[in-house]
Amino acid sequence: MVLEFIIQWVVDAISYTGYLGVFLFMALESALIPIPSEVIMPFSGYLVFAGRFGFWEVVLAGALGNLVGSWVAYWAGAKGGRHIVLRFHGQRGMEHLKVAEKWFERYGDVTAFFSRLMPVVRTFISFPAGVGKMNFKRFSIYTFVGSFIWSAVLTYIGFVLGNRWEEIMGFFRQFEVAIILVLIVAAIYWFKGNNKKANKNPFHRKPR
Q1: Higher-pLDDT residue of 166, 89
Q2: Looking at the domain assignment, is residue 175 inside a domain?
């Protein structure tokens, strides 16, 4: 019931506000407010199909929204700490944050990129990046690139499905585990490859 209300609210708001609505909702999603991008971007893709939106304009609005929202979460993590999540999201929010923190601790900076392609984690990953004082410039670049890809994929699927755009939510529920496993393997492969290169560098020094 709650999910259906959120979906209808997002759909109505984007229909009325256009690109600004896409930007704002994607910003909220990345600012620790779990509004599903699996609703925002596919519906926007449907509006591209209907001739109301431009494809790349939608993708850019979504990616920029994610970036701005991620900046908010990053600085909240850097300045406020974990009690912010506990206060506004309760124990469930803390559980999601712990998942994001484990990813960040295990895979480092590259998590800011790969997490943008994952449900749930993408909403909370900016906060531990701020807590860990990740380099802000690298964080912004990884976030924007990952968000751009995610926005483009979801928008394209919504465009292809047309007025059946809501079917994508069933797809993600069905294949979510498989998608996450593929992304984990890709992240591990990337991390190990870069770690080996760093270890071969005679000037490489591990941070204290």
Answers
A1: 166
A2: no
